[in-house]
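Regression test case RT-17, inverse folding.

Input:
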């Protein structure tokens, strides 16, 4: 934890490219819930080039910015929709970049921005409530060496109202799910 502010630092990765996506709105709401406990910074995969080992070094400036934020953070919270039951391409591409070594010709494959970082996952989506993408992300994040909180995850199905308006319905159930996950994640980080 950052002793200068006595607040944790949480990097929030949103899997959707849309500026006002429901998952971005969910991340913003989680940030509001945590404002007394943590400084939250949101990143999306917008504008990140496809990962290519031929152009990996030097990494794009946007990747370096996200890597630096993650290295200085206490944890990573991912908010993702589910595209055809799977991880959205932009998010998978961002995670591919983050899984790579920080330095060229580095023989230590654990020398990444995310290795050993605490992580959790939330999502809002259709009837499946992002269960499939969250399960896939747990597998991927473990493979990347992250310490993933698998309990108390927010899996939210869109309400009919939300489907019509694309505005996050801040119902009591949504607030409770986020608060439960936020509290659990803060404890998970402190372990």
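Golden output:
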């Amino acid at each position: 934890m950052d002793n200068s502010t006595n607040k944790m630092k949480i990097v929030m990765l949103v899997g959707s490219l849309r500026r006002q996506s429901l998952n971005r709105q969910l991340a913003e709401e989680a940030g509001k819930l945590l404002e007394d406990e943590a400084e939250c910074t949101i990143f999306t995969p917008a504008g990140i080039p496809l990962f290519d080992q031929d152009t990996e070094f030097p990494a794009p400036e946007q990747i370096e910015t996200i890597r630096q934020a993650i290295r200085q953070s206490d944890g990573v919270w991912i908010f993702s929709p589910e595209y055809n039951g799977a991880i959205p391409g932009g998010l998978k591409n961002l995670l591919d970049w983050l899984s790579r070594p920080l330095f060229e010709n580095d023989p230590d494959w654990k020398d990444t921005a995310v290795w050993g970082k605490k992580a959790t996952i939330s999502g809002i989506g259709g009837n499946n409530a992002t269960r499939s993408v969250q399960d896939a992300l747990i597998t991927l994040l473990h493979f990347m060496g992250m310490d993933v909180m698998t309990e108390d995850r927010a899996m939210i199905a869109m309400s009919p109202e939300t489907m019509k308006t694309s505005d996050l319905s801040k119902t009591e159930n949504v607030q409770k799910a986020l608060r439960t996950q936020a509290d659990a994640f803060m404890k998970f980080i402190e372990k």
